[in-house]
Structures are given as C-alpha cells and as structure tokens.
Specification:
alpha/beta; two-stranded parallel sheet; 8 helices
Length: 209
C-alpha cells in the first residue's frame, strides 16, 4: 500500500499540478482580450511604403518619432520581419510620401541631402554618435572609419565605428556609404546589394573612387 505524502508535501504537489495544468478557457479568453486591447490602443504604430529605385525595390517605414527604416535589395516579407515586432504595421503611402519624394529627387541628382525626422531610438548612444558624424560627410567626399573614430575622440575605435555603421537603420538618408577603409577600399556595407550598391551611391554623388 502506497504511503500518502505528508500534508505539507501534498499541498505542494497540488500547487505544482495546478501551475502546470491548462488554464480555464475563460482565463485564456480574458488574457487574449487584454493583449488585443493593448495592441490596438497602446502598441507603437509603424507605417510603411515602397518605391522603385535604381537599386531595386526600396522600402521605408515611419514610426511616431520619424523615419525608422530604409531597406533595398530585400523582399517585402524580409523588410517587415526586421521592424519592431511589438508594433502595429500599416501600409500607408501617404505617411511616407515625403520620404519617397526626397529619395526620388536624390536618385535623379536633384537632391544631395535629406530633410527628414529620423528615429534612432533603438540604437545605443555610441551608435547614434557614429551616425551623427557620418551625417557631417559632404556628398562627393569619403572619410575613413578611423577618421570618424577620431572625430568622436576615440581614435582606436575604428572597428566599433564600422559595426555601428552596419547597424544604420536608414542607409542613404544617413550616408554611411561615405565611410571607407584606410587603404582606400570600400570596406563593408550592410545595404542591399552590398558593396556594389555602396559603389553606385558614391559614384552618383561624384566621389572619386
């Protein structure tokens, strides 16, 4: 005959079984309703659109703070998968019209820079600092990773600078393509089509390669 567990142990076993058992249907439904309400009313919104460009299909996205993504060389599903998974995504051409118009002007040679609010809130202060320096590089010019590091007062941080540039969520608008290696090679580029896109952008701007 199996001996019954002590009273305290029995209570513990009961609590464990309760914890690992499936919640009542009403509790599940109530939880789902709360999540749905939060997502509809409080989740951040991201609106996006797309355009044809010389670099292929180009996607852009705007958060409430500003432009938060520019992607090219990827498909729609891959682009959407890279956005904030907590956000409500809405395809809204009107919301991104200004961005697409400025990009069109840039690709046609009618615009050298951009006048757009940018959302870099997902980046670290160091990464934002690197991108801020990149914005100071004039069209047609190139700086090295080391020079960017020196401009930040961190001359030995060339590698972290390169890593920060690779995290640029809005390439072209923030011109990370204007930063090259110290030996004159292009270095790296995280934008669509990789180094061929970087070379194309630099030539568009009149940089001597």
């Amino acid at each position: 005959m199996t001996k019954a567990p002590p009273l305290g142990e029995a209570a513990t076993i009961k609590r464990l079984r309760s914890a690992f058992s499936k919640p009542p249907a009403a509790a599940i439904s109530q939880s789902q309703a709360r999540v749905k309400h939060w997502f509809a009313k409080e989740a951040p919104g991201i609106r996006w659109g797309e355009m044809n460009s010389p670099l292929g299909r180009l996607f852009v996205a705007m958060s409430d703070r500003g432009l938060c993504a520019v992607e090219f060389g990827v498909g729609e599903n891959a682009f959407l998968a890279r956005l904030d998974p907590r956000a409500r995504l809405e395809r809204d051409p009107n919301a991104v019209r200004r961005t697409l118009e400025q990009l069109t002007e840039y690709f046609s040679g009618k615009r050298a820079g951009f006048d757009l609010p940018v959302d870099l809130s997902a980046l670290t202060p160091f990464q934002r600092g690197v991108l801020d320096v990149a914005c100071r590089i004039a069209p047609g010019q190139v700086w090295t990773y080391r020079r960017v590091a020196e401009e930040m007062g961190r001359p030995k941080s060339s590698r972290p600078v390169g890593q920060a540039l690779a995290r640029n969520p809005v390439p072209i608008v923030i011109p990370c393509h204007r930063v090259i290696a110290s030996d004159g090679s292009l270095g790296g580029y995280s934008g669509g089509a990789g180094l061929s896109a970087k070379r194309w952008l630099l030539r568009l701007e009149g940089a001597a390669l």
